[in-house]
Amino acid sequence: MAEERRQKHCSVVLPTESMKAMAESVGVGQLQEDSCVALSEEVSYRIKEIAQDALKFMHHGKRRKLTTSDIDNALKLKNVEPLYGFQSQEFIPFRFASGGGRELHFYEEKEVDLSDIINTPLPRVPLDVSLKAHWLSIEGMQPAIPENPPPATKEQQKAESTEPLKVVKPGQEEEGTIQGKSQGTTTPDGKGKEKGLIRLKPRSTHELSVEQQLYYKEITEACVGSCEAKRAEALQSIATDPGLYQMLPRFSTFISEGVRVNVVQNNLALLIYLMRMVKALMDNPTLYLEKYLHELIPAVVTCIVSKQLCLRPDVDNHWALRDFAARLMAQSCKTFSTTTNNIQSRITKTFTKSWLDDKTQWTTRYGCIAGLAELGSDVIKTLIIPRLAVEGARIKAVMEGPVVSNIDKIGAEHVQSLLLKHCASVIAKLRPQPDNVDQYRTDYGYLGPMLCSHVMKARTQAALQAQQVNRTTLTITQPRPTLSVSQSGLSGSSGPRTPSIIKVPSSLTLMSPRPGTPSQPSPPATKYIVMATSAGAASTQQVITLSSSQSASPVTSTVPSATSTLQPLVKLESGSGAGLTASRPLQKYIVVSLPSSASSSLETKSSVLPTSISSSSLDGGMKLERSESPGASTQSPH
Amino acid sequence: MAAVQGGMGDADIKTDIKTEPSADGFGNNNANDGRVLSASPGSTPVTPEDQQTLLAVLQFLKKNKLTESVEILRREAGLPENSLDPKANESAGAGSGGAAGIVDLEGGDASSLLSRVTGSSSAGAQAPTKGTVQSGSGRDQPDVSVVLSAYSQQGDPTLYKVYYRDLKKFIETVLDCHRAELSQVFYPLFVHMYLELVYNNHESEAKAFFEKFSGDQECYYEEDLRILSGLTKKEHMRGNETLLDFRTSKFVLRISRDSYQLLKRHLQERQNNQIWNIIQEHLYIDIFDGMPRSKSQIDAMSGSLAGEAKREANKTKVYYGLLKEPEIELPLDDEDEEAENEEGKPKKKKPKKDSVGSKSKKQDPNAPSQNRIPLPELKDSDKLDKIMYMKEATKRIRLGPDNLPSVCFYTFLNAYQGLTAVDLTDDSSLIAGGFADSTVRVWSVTPKKLRKVKSAADLNLIDKESDDVLERIMDEKTASESKIMYGHSGPVYGISFSPDRNYLLSSSEDGTVRLWSLLTFTCLVAYKGHNYPVWDTQFSPYGYYFVSGGHDRVARLWATDHYQPLRIFSGHLADITCTRFHPNSNYVATGSSDRTIRLWDVLSGNCVRIFTGHKGPIHSLAFSPNGKFLASGATDGRVLLWDIGHGLMVGELKGHTDTIYSLRFSRDGEILASGSMDNTVRLWDAMKAFDDLETDDFTAATGHIHLQDNSQELLLGTYTTKSTPVIHLHFTRRNLLLAAGVSQL
């Protein structure tokens, strides 16, 4: 401790090199070493003084972060002119550069084209300061409302459930005290006493307040009621509200009992609603569900593999429910499976066992396969594909054999399409390219020919996607909350357009989006996707893609970047002057914003400007973001 | 800053002079010991010193061209004509001030004289002399050089380490009971030895010394050590405030007689003059008879920039009782009775009131007389407000450990962390915020909107005789929920409503305090006086007066109709960070970055209490409603409770992990609420904290206290916000707790 403190107190002095650099910057060429030392000591001392004063201003400003204005005020205190031009609220974007054995941090000041500023539409006026009141506590109790932090954090909930020694749960309490007492009496030694002295948490009654009871009633009614709008609201509440953990046991029981009853009654709609509740609970980031998995998992599994889930199995789409529940199951395996509870292996075992059983009905069979398939390609590879031939034979027996019940036939059809759907993509990766129908037939039996066509389809699709996937993708989270540009939900526009700009996929894949992702609604946090790709050896390009929520029009720009795409922020000039330039075509800095859904226009139209670039790609992105208007093609700032 | 420095010097003399006669045997003892050791010219110990003082005064007068005064004084003192002649003086000085052999030649004539005066006076360890010198040299530079020149006594720089290590070894080997007390010496010694080394240009030795021993110091001095560590050159010492604080004020230690004797004997045996000189010159050792204090007792009281408060400093009688409320005729009979009670509480609370001792009709013995300071007369509107207050008070919830208040939190949205100060009116109808962008904003938190008064032309048209003239003067068109007031040119750090809700005060980084009208929403006055940022300001509970304190280390008392301050309270060694009026308006409490709290008498302007014990700058203060206790919160995350009458710390509330920016007692004083940067509001059982006191302890002459660590029992509730530091707390008249803050998300 003392050592550390001493280290901290040791006066840190600026290096003399910085003195020299500063002297050079004001035109003093030769500075003697002695004067450098003297200067650096003096400067370090003054800087420390100012920093100490600035801290004062931070404290009185009731902040934790020192800002540039604090430094300004500290300078004013010393009758020194403040440093103008450092207005950043958050941080000063110092840039680092090295070269010639020197390392420099500098504050980059770009040249700004005034006409550019004039032409860009004004940003939104920031919201005015306003007051909002909420109850932090009501007679000593903190209400669980979104304005307050969740009453028990996930860690606390976890600690409660995983460390029962520290916190004795209601059921165990008596046991504990009895044990303590008996030990205290029978063994009068210190150890026994110590055990008896363990502080036991008073029995928690898990009583719900009146408000909570009302909430519970409303929510459960809305979840299984007939009004879809209400249900959506209720599910939204379950998925987002903090402080539901007290009601979690109730919800869990509600779901498990609900499933039990409705499976018997074959009430498909209710089962779907209950599964949606499970989904919502799992989506809530403040809940620690581990304690209630013993109730939830059986309910979910029931919805996957139950023989009958609806009154008219031939008409009703109970398959969708099985698919949905299977996905839920896979999700909970992913999040909750640990080496101690082994959820995934136990679930896998369960599914496999009932699938292997010959007497299993088609519905259950479908559920088992769906459940396994959702667990990932590894499971498909090891468990499903080896059994394709057997399963094919069984399907064949139903499809082509003597007429059995219509239900069986439908079931077999569904199993067949399910198998084809899941296995095709996996097989496409496993098997070498030439897809031979006969080969498939020998390998997979009845399903072989169909699989073969599916695999071929999968391959062409994969090839298409590969061009999308293998772009170097860098995601930059939005720096300021006011600039809200969110990614569009239209996947169609981004699909076919990209190959036109980016021809050769780069090997530097930082993040490859899964094929399905664009179609899903993106999270509220806005992301800029900066894509860099090296188009052959001749030119290196970088692409910034930005899509705005309203227009769904991607804004794309190409800027030249250094040969090392990993550090596109540093020294653009040096990259261009690396000798390759001569053979290379003009450096391009293209800013194009597309009209929405006009995906093909980009190939032909892109404004090209020769530029001398000193700005980083990130800055380009920031600029671009201002031109939100769809369809307007904006020139680069340079 | 120069003036400030001088002013501080003045205050020091005052206290010093006051304490000197009352300092019984010890003080003299001290001085005698000093003389023995420093081998001062023992023949006539008093006369030369007096002469030196006179010389210094004469020098000052002459410098300021007060020739007549010079003549008069010289005649009175019977000094020879040439006594002010530097050369003649030199010989005289050499004769009289034997110990001060070194003459600082760079300082010129004036400073050479002064430095010598300082030298000799320090040898004699006579505070008044030095004080005079400091105040005498009103300018900054001579002052600094005088202050610093005392360091010019040269010792072998390499021996400093040995001396210090020696003492350390000695203190480590003494009996346990003395060790804690004697360890207090380490920090001031360390600092002064380091500064001496730096002053004498032994840079590398100083650095080595610092590195070797800085780790031994108590952790609460870390801030100061960090500042010291940066100070490595003699040139840095000029204008460094921390250093000046150290030099201009003596570090006060409280040590039992036994321990002190032990230390003295050791130093005498070792002939360790270097250390003994420092102790004599820069330390004030307050010796008491009785048991040495324990480590925890010492730790509770230490931590301030200049050591503990002298016992004498807290001996003055403080009238902490409340003023009698004027009797107001209430429209209803049942409320008439309550009007006689000071706070208009229902009858069931009577027993408690008696214990507080301020509620009965007869004057509370601890209360100041009604007209001790002139207070503004009550207006009709004030009486109406009082009646409203009493009506509300009857509906007040009686709080306690089983009956906690509800907390309503006001979050400022879209403030981008620019909120720097908040205040609420007493009736909780308005909330005001001061912002880093220099604006002051007022919101109405009731459905009643804020309206301006009509323009002068429109006002002429109004029938002045009508009953609702007050309503008619308001301009309906201007009604809105909030108003913005522009005027400051820097962040607004302090804000306070007047009790009658007609005015608002704000203090800012630009050095002004501004008075705003809440009828026209314009600035009425800018009070200029602090030339540096004003950190806090507050209205007196009776209006009219207000206090402000800031970076210039003085607190000023103003009246709204005077553009100059009525009182200047100087004495703090660092920024004044917060100011509070006592409920009876006769006293002002100020908290400071020097980690002390001072209580000032508004009537005399004297400092009547110094509370030490915080380990960081104090950012919040609150008086209990009965005026008996003070609570303070600091950056160290602790709340300390003080008994004003006895001048002692009576409690420590630990729990917060960051700066406490707001403290407030509930209306009846049962609950103390604290709001902090750590995003929590905590409620403490104030009744229990004060009831548990063993008042016997107070009568003990030693004046130390045994604090039991019962923070956990006293903590009634902790309410966490969502990343929102709590910067203001307020109890409504019905005891609902309002909190305010701005989200850091």
From TrEMBL, chain A:
Which Gene3D superfamilies does the record associate with it? Histone, subunit A, TAF6, C-terminal HEAT repeat domain
**Where is there biased composition of kind Pro residues?**
515-524
GO annotation (BP), single: RNA polymerase II preinitiation complex assembly
| Disordered as annotated region, ranges | 142-197, 478-526, 598-638
Bias type Low complexity, positions: 483-495, 598-617
Q: Where in the cell is it found?
A: Nucleus
Give the Gene Ontology MF terms in alphabetical order.
protein heterodimerization activity; RNA polymerase II general transcription initiation factor activity; transcription coactivator activity
> InterPro entries, from UniProt?
Histone-fold, TAF6, TAF6_C, TAF6_C_sf, TAF_TATA-bd_Histone-like_dom
**Record GO cellular component, one term:** transcription factor TFIID complex
Arranged from A to Z, the UniProt key words for this protein are: Nucleus, Transcription, Transcription regulation
For the TATA box binding protein associated factor (TAF) histone-like fold domain, which residue ranges apply? 12-78
Which regions are flagged for Polar residues bias? 179-188
Similarity comment: Belongs to the TAF6 family.
Specify the protein name.
Transcription initiation factor TFIID subunit 6
The uppermost taxa in this organism's lineage are: Eukaryota, Metazoa, Chordata, Craniata, Vertebrata
| Gene, per the UniProt record | TAF6
UniProtKB/TrEMBL annotation, chain B:
Listed A to Z, the keywords are: Nucleus, Repeat, Transcription, Transcription regulation, WD repeat
* Comp. bias intervals (Low complexity): 23-34
Q: Which domain of life is it from?
A: Eukaryota
Q: Where is the composition biased (Polar residues)?
A: 129-138
The UniProt entry, under Gene3D superfamilies, shows: TFIID subunit TAF5, NTD2 domain, YVTN repeat-like/Quinoprotein amine dehydrogenase
Q: Where does each WD repeat begin and end?
A: 412-453, 485-518, 527-558, 569-610, 611-644, 653-685
Record-linked InterPro entries: LisH, TFIID_NTD2, TFIID_NTD2_sf, WD40/YVTN_repeat-like_dom_sf, WD40_PAC1, WD40_repeat_CS, WD40_repeat_dom_sf, WD40_rpt
Q: Where is the composition biased (Acidic residues)?
A: 330-341
GO BP terms: namely:
transcription initiation at RNA polymerase II promoter
**Main localization, broad class:** nucleus
From the Swiss-Prot or TrEMBL record, what is one GO molecular function term?
Answer: RNA polymerase II general transcription initiation factor activity
User: Which residue ranges does the record annotate as region Disordered?
Assistant: 1-48, 81-100, 115-140, 330-378
Q: Which residues cross the membrane?
A: none
Give the subcellular location.
Answer: Nucleus
One term under GO cellular component: transcription factor TFIID complex
**Residues in domain TFIID subunit TAF5 NTD2?**
155-283
| Residue ranges with Basic and acidic residues bias | 11-21, 353-364
Protein family: Belongs to the WD repeat TAF5 family.
Q: What is this protein called?
A: Transcription initiation factor TFIID subunit 5
Question: What lineage does UniProt assign to this protein's organism?
Answer: Eukaryota, Metazoa, Chordata, Craniata, Vertebrata
* Gene name of the record: TAF5
